[in-house]
Amino acid sequence: MADLKITALHKYYGTVHAVRGVDLEIPAGEFTVLVGPSGCGKSTLLRTIAGLEDADKGTIEIGGRVVNHLPPRNRDIAMVFQNYALYPYMKVFDNIAFGLRSRNTPKKDIEPKVRRTAQMLAIDHLLDRYPRELSGGQLQRVAIGRAVVRSARLYLFDEPLSNLDAQLRDEMRGEIKRLHQELGKTMIYVTHDQVEAMTMADRIVLLRDGLIEQAGAPLELFERPATRYVAGFLGSPAMNFIDTRLIAAANGLALLLGDGTNLAVPQKRAGSLAKQVDQPVILGVRPEHLSRATQGERQGLARYTAVIELLQPTGSRTYATFNLGGTRAVAELQAHDVSAINQSIELSIDMNRVVLIDPATNRVLS
Amino acid sequence: MMTVKQRYALRTGVRLAAAVAITVLFLFPIYWLFMISFKTPEEIYSFPPKWYPGRIHFANYAVLFKDGDAITVWNSFVVAGVSSVIAMFLGSIGAYSLARFRTGGEHLANWIISQRMIPPIAVVFPIFLLYVWLRLVDTYIGVILLYTAFNLPYVIWMMRGYILDIPRALEESALVDGCTRWQVIWKVVFPMCRAGLFATAIFTFVFAWNDFIFALVLTRTEVATYTVQVTHYFGGQSNFWAKISAMSVLGTLPIFVITAFMQRYFVRGLSLGAVKG
User: How far is CA A366 from CA A217, A234, A276, A357, B23, in A?
Assistant: First the structure.
């Protein structure tokens, strides 16, 4: 049974239509990440699920029960907030115990529960401290502890890591994922960070302008995006988009670039593109699908001679910027593939893995 | 030529001397008030004046208690205390409503504080006529009602500022954790603005404690406050300085005690709303 079922949900702020008809089902035990740029409605959606905002239209069911008119405390949820939301006048122990006490948990059960949770999050030595005496990472652990100490059907996380520095964020990401595996509870996690979404989610729900753009497993969205938006949102550095025209060449279909180069489309992809011949098509190619060409032909690889304009070495990989058919593009190369700018090198494009997009609809052509 | 150290010492010395002089200047009337209350009539009127009484003499206070005049201090305490508690409670939840639910839109809060600016003398006579009709003149309820009404705008205005400074997520977190709105106010909002609550409560109490004009018009004998009582000692032929000073000391002491005990909250509460923009 689905732990959460949202049907045709709408939310307005005055004249702003923040959530514009969202349908979503989340099965029990799943870790779902709501991701999208700021203003896409992801936090609003989460807050509406929590009951901190009223839904204007549509229904929200938690555990098979419509909760639209229930206050947050009766929705069987726990939530972690972006700014920790810890009570500064209470010690860590009391902060974690707050929810248990509010729900009249028997006194003898509170202490063991708080201690067990604190142990799980490695904050058991901090129970006697006040929040002001803790570091950012410790505060976030306490905030998570306060949510997971209670047994709830749904656990909601509203950008919990965005106040932490990069290193701590990596660490906490793993921590939250481990917590999910240990508890096996349904969790909904909001973030604008696509790396967080990719690394943590069982399923990503990508939102745009108050609507779900695409939902699915992280790799499914990454490898088979439905729209240009999804293709461009996931992946770092972002996918390169190049304006081309699909033409019929001597040995099948090809993409004609602005500089007159032809990139052959693999035979197995050609079938579904017949209608698109002589039409403009956007070529979407991820930086990691561009590599330094090696000797010998391989099926599905197209060659392109590029002049490198900018190099950004990261240590293990080097990002090389060059002009691909009139558009600036980035290739993710091996560290020593290129050594200097203005160097001309032969690149190969993995045409089996590129996406082709109809510029009229911005949808990916199958 | 002075060394840097000497110059520093001189500057500190001058500052200290100025501070002492100013403090003495301000504290002298209070010192004098206390001293008169302990003097005999001869000492009070002696010339040249006696800077301190020959021996501490409590007769001036004893008279106030024997004549029953001291009860007016108790009356002040009851009306100021009860009206402050009511105004703090009603004002705080009103402020919460304004801050969190935007009750009354943008301008209601401004309108409310403008009510506090009405000169008491402008309304006291219409209120007196109303009270005569309602039989509230010279009753605790009548005075408490009026002080509460007059203090409410101030409490609402101050508390609204303090509440707006509390991050919303703290309240939302409590709502999710199982609290009702009332519990949120009690368990989160009040503790979060405790310093502000105390500072506002002190001001509210002091306003009622020090009020003269309302008490003068609306009380007679039953619930007359000490401020009204003091004026009875100013006579056409002579002034009862002994009684005036003893009663004034009785009226001043509670304020000293309150501010001394609450100073910590007081200073924090006053700066709390001010620092954050």
Answer: 18, 19, 11, 9, 87
Domain identity same for B41 and B96? no
pLDDT given for residue B276 in this prediction: 36
* B166 closest CA partner among B151, B182, B188: B188
Chain A contacts in chain B segment 147-176 (CB below 8 A)? 167, 169-170, 172-176
**A319 shares contact with chain B (CB less than 8 Å):** no
A103 contacts in chain B (CB < 8 Å):
177-178
| Interface check A103 vs B, CB under 8 A | yes
Does pTM surpass 0.80? yes
CB atoms B177 and A52 under 8 Å: no
In DSSP terms, A187 is beta-bridged to A31, A155
Domain with residues A2-226, CATH architecture: 3-Layer(aba) Sandwich (3.40)
Do B187 and B230 share a domain, yes or no? yes
- Domain of B157? 67-275
Q: What is the pLDDT of residues A13-40, one digit of tens each?
A: 999 999 999 999 999 999 999 999 999 9
Residue B128 clears pLDDT 60, i.e. is over it: yes
A240-365 has which CATH code? 2.40.50.140
Closest-CA distance of chain A to residue B190, Å: 11
The residue ranking higher by pLDDT, A144 or B2, is: A144
